[in-house]
Amino acid sequence: MLDIAIIGAGPAGLSAAINGVIRNKKVIVFGREPKSSYLYKAEKVDNYLGMPNISGPKMIEEFLNHAKKLGVEFHEGRTLEVFPMGNYYTLNVENEFFEAKTVIIATGIPKANYIPGEKEFLGKGVSYCGTCDGPLYRGKTTMVIGEIEEAEEDVNFLQEICDKVYFLPTYKEIKHVSPKVEILKGKPKEILGDNFVSGIRIDDKELKVDGVFLIKETVPVTQLIKGLEMEGKTIKVNRRQETNFPGVFAAGDCTGRPFQVTKAVGEGAVAALETVSYLHKMDIEKK
Amino acid sequence: MLDIAIIGAGPAGLSAAINGVIRNKKVIVFGREPKSSYLYKAEKVDNYLGMPNISGPKMIEEFLNHAKKLGVEFHEGRTLEVFPMGNYYTLNVENEFFEAKTVIIATGIPKANYIPGEKEFLGKGVSYCGTCDGPLYRGKTTMVIGEIEEAEEDVNFLQEICDKVYFLPTYKEIKHVSPKVEILKGKPKEILGDNFVSGIRIDDKELKVDGVFLIKETVPVTQLIKGLEMEGKTIKVNRRQETNFPGVFAAGDCTGRPFQVTKAVGEGAVAALETVSYLHKMDIEKK
Predict the structure, then answer these.
(1) How many CB contacts within 8 angstroms connect chain A with chain B?
(2) Could you tell me if residue B223 is inside a domain?
(3) ipTM value
(4) Is A139 contained in some domain?
């Protein structure tokens, strides 16, 4: 029986893992290769205090090294479902089963509904965060496709630094967008380019753009644990990273914006420390 | 007018600062030398993901280097009070005044050790700054209780204008204090007076004084902004690091446990990003 099962091997999961291991808990991180993470495609991260101007892959390497140094155990595989069993949980990890007293969900931003070209050009002109990668497009032409109102922040930020910004919202009602932004309608059909994005096709029309920002919904993880309480599309947690299931915590992008490494790492640590408190209470109640 | 005034130069403050600067905001960090922080005394920190097995002083060095690389501006000095001015705030930093659209409080672990009488007589003979309020005590008898070496400045200044100055340092080693000052030892038990300070009790001994100057690491946050909502001894914030004052955010140890660098850094970043959203909304409302 594990003390803590951590679902997700990104910054939140790894931070939770090192904090659990330091507190002498039996921990396994269930996750997929870090190459699947958004961070791996980040050209540059500059806002994680103490590690200035670092590339995404280098950052992942440093994070993994830290975890390995502390003896964190990994199990590769996608967790398909978590079953509440009374006072513990059973995880189905691609049809291998694990039992754990507690669970930390750190699954990141789930991906869905790819536009043709999106996967291929991710990190080569396609980005999921305007406020993060925008500075790479200073003086250039960019397009934001926004599934959610928060996209307007990205749009307004890009408008400050880009030569030209198009905005294609796929949600209901625009709230606060700078008048300098050109609003478009239609359906994005394909992202165009050779080695790097050079344009996008909206319905039958082709537009020249240097970058495409896809501001996506976070897909619910309600399939993972049935009955998990959500807040919009992200997992509802309090400041202690507790979900509505006792012993199930969540950290990082799956708990909502801002989608930043630094937030994920902080939350992962808090989730682990709260989990440790929870385990201690469980032990005391047993005695 | 600053976009963001950050009070505190520890991990939370520095993380907020780099995130504000990356988003093109005009930021100043108001704080004292990091040598005063708890982190500086940490022999080893091993749970900040990506920086395994690092000493406290080395960690501070890395953090400061990152901030300096990004051009973060610092102003040394203790912030004595923050005044809400409608749609902006004015900071009194040892009697220099700064205006800022938003404020991030990152003052560290709250030391809520009030001396009996301290709250009651604040502004009536009790002050947190000798160089600011000293002139009111010309020709009188005052006492300085100093938690930090900087208190010596207040002591030496008061000695020039007061008839008599007592000094009770609670830190290790006195550096430069005028020989005319009478140094005391003991524990301050109570500040005495009727409507105004008339004395102080140190252990069992009562001294007649007209003013008591308490030179602390940081001014208690409840004195910093009158009306700030607390939760026990820490500042009440939600998951967006918002306090009950619009445009005032808080991050790090001052918002409660766990008192960990990684939590502080994550929260500092979140506070800065939420502040940026708040500033954008302000800008749009003006237009």
Answers:
(1) 131
(2) yes
(3) 0.81
(4) yes
Other beta carbons within 10 angstroms of residue A103's beta carbon come to 28
What span, in angstroms and rounded, lies between the C-alpha atoms of B60 and B65? 8
B78 and B50, same domain (yes or no): yes
CATH code of the domain containing A83: 3.50.50.60
State the pTM of this model.
0.77
Give B264 to chain A, closest Cα distance, Å: 7
Q: How many domains does chain A have?
A: 2
**Band (A223; pLDDT cuts 50, 70, 90):** low
Structure tokens at B106: 């990152």
Strand pairing class (A182-183; A164-169): parallel
What would the pLDDT profile of A103-129 be if each residue is shown by its tens digit?
Answer: 999 988 765 567 899 878 988 999 877
pLDDT in tens, B45-86: 999 999 999 999 999 999 999 999 999 999 998 899 999 999
A49, A136, A274, best to mutate vs chain B, most B CBs in 10 Å: A49
Q: Does the distance separating the beta carbons of B269 and A262 come in below 8 Å?
A: yes
- Confirm whether B121 is domain-assigned: no
Mutating which of B21, B49, B283 best tests the A interface, going by the most A Cβ atoms within 10 A?
B49
- A249-274 confidence digits (pLDDT tens): 999 999 999 999 999 999 999 999 99
The answer for residues whose C-beta is within 8 angstroms of residue A146's C-beta and 6 or more apart is A152, A154, A155, A167, A168, A169, A170, A171, A215
Q: Using CB atoms, pick whichever of A49, A270, A273 lies closest to residue B63.
A: A49
Contact between A258 and B269 using a beta-carbon 8 Å cutoff: yes
The boundaries of the domain holding residue B209 are 126-215
> Do the domain assignments include residue A273?
yes
pLDDT at A37 over 70: no
B49–A11 CB contact, under 8 Å:
yes
Q: State the average pLDDT for chain A.
A: 90
User: Are residues B17 and B107 located together in one domain of the fold?
Assistant: yes
